[in-house]
Design goal:
The protein is of the alpha/beta class. Helix content is about 40%, strand content about 25%. The longest helix is centred in the C-terminal third of the chain and has 18 residues, at about 170-190.
């Protein structure tokens, strides 16, 4: 459903160019949940932004159902592909109510029955009508991220791009949001591309994953290979070891 071929993203800083993504390729099947992992600065979030048209693609090809994406992205693209950002505190306008946040994409895309769609979106993410006219400062972090998910889902897209959707949340709330996303994908047949530094999250959510380092693809693994710690490169093996955390042997 989604194809990325030899993607390159270059940022110009004036004195020099910074190549944030270099020759990354992967395919995501319809209904699949695909993970991208790596250290901070590896370029994984930049890949998602490039797919959305929010980062400057200097080379390569991105296609949806075999059709290259237009530059800039058109309204039809955003009907089919939506993104949930990492920080629920920054992704919602502090002076807009939840109703305003959910009404705006419906107005832009010309949807009818807006009240009905907003009510259903809030119910789908487990909030309900009582949250409709609240402001972001009246919500917890987990509730804000549920609103962000509702905003992404309200246009009934086929693909969700998830940029560290739970990393800013407490551990107990993380599980709630991940289970919500998992259930919505199963119910609606959604396709996910999930970026995370947390291998446990990726193992729970994704059938396959791409490991990135310094803007490049290192290797692709299945969920079974990840759980069996069957990495093919030294970098991925180090990443897997680091994900286990501190042990007494490390201090010896």
């Amino acid at each position: 459903m989604l194809t990325v071929e030899n993607l390159e993203v270059t940022f110009s800083t004036g004195a020099e160019d910074v190549q944030a993504v270099r020759g990354v390729s992967f395919d995501v099947a319809r209904g699949e949940s695909y993970g991208i992992v790596g250290e901070s600065g590896s370029g994984k979030s930049t890949v998602l932004r490039a797919i959305c048209g929010l980062a400057p693609t200097s080379a390569g090809r991105i296609a949806l159902d075999g059709q290259p994406l237009p530059r800039p992205r058109d309204a039809g693209f955003y009907r089919r592909v939506q993104m949930v950002f990492q920080d629920p505190y920054a992704s919602l306008h502090p002076r807009h109510t939840v109703d305003s946040v959910l009404s705006e994409p419906l107005a832009i895309q010309g949807f009818d029955r807006r009240d009905e769609r907003i009510a259903r979106a809030l119910d789908d993410v487990g909030l309900g009508q009582g949250f409709r006219f609240r402001y972001p400062h009246q919500l917890s972090g987990g509730q804000r991220q549920r609103v962000a998910v509702a905003r992404a889902l309200i246009l009934e897209p086929q693909i969700l791009l998830l940029d560290e959707p739970t990393s800013a949340l407490d551990a107990s709330i993380q599980a709630e949001v991940l289970n919500l996303l998992d259930g919505l994908r199963a119910e609606r047949g959604l396709t996910y591309v999930l970026v995370s530094h947390d291998l446990a999250v990726v193992s729970h959510m994704c059938e396959r994953l791409l490991v990135m380092q310094h803007g490049q693809a290192v290797e692709e693994l299945t969920r079974d290979a990840l759980r069996a710690r069957a990495a093919g490169t030294d970098y991925t093996r180090r990443l897997l070891k680091a994900s286990v955390g501190f042990t007494r042997e490390d201090a010896a």
